[in-house]
Amino acid sequence: MSKLRFWVEVALSVLSGLALVLTLVWEEWIEEVFGVEPDGGDGSAEWLVFLVLAVLAVGSGVLARVEWRRLTAAGAA
């Protein structure tokens, strides 16, 4: 179960990191992909998505690191 949790956290970190880079490179991807303009074109939705993705990427990366340390400590004992 712990290995699965580690890999889920790593995958979540990588995916949110990629989406974060996508948001930086192509700000209008929300409008293009979903066909809606939630912020009326002023860019505030993109910045909110950027912040949420940044927190998600860093948070899941930290959780994966904690899980990795727990797994390696359990294997060494």
From TrEMBL:
Alphabetic keyword roster: Membrane, Transmembrane, Transmembrane helix
Q: Which residues cross the membrane?
A: 7-26, 46-64
- Put simply, this protein is called ABC transporter permease
Which species expresses this protein natively?
A: Nocardioides anomalus
Q: What is the lineage of its organism?
A: Bacteria, Bacillati, Actinomycetota, Actinomycetes, Propionibacteriales
